[in-house]
Amino acid sequence: MKIEERAIEEKICPLEFAVNAISGKWKIPIVWRINEGEKRPSEMLRGIAKVDRRVLNQQLKELERDGILSKKSFHELPPRVEYTLTPLGEKLVEVLWKLNDWGKILLEDATATKES
Description:
Strand content: 5-15%
Order of helices and strands: HHHHEEH
Helix content: 55-70%
Radius of gyration: 20 Å
Distance between the termini: 63 Å
Strand order of the largest sheet: 1-2
């Protein structure tokens, strides 16, 4: 008996692709902080509780790689870098505001459920 092999096509789901780009415990807080004007990793370390510098740097690199952030290095002593949102990152912030509004609805529903 001959068994036919099926070709498995890799399908790309836009939602899964988007979620993978922002997956990671600290990516959304990082984007949010940069949107609020913090540009340097040291500012983010103070503003995001319990994030490790190594993890912060890794997630900043991934966000830069995915086109959400851009990095500018200043050739001075001590060395300094700043991150800003790219146009793609600014579109992400628009989505995060909508997600925030949806979160408010969830909180209201959860509170109403507890009260009844």
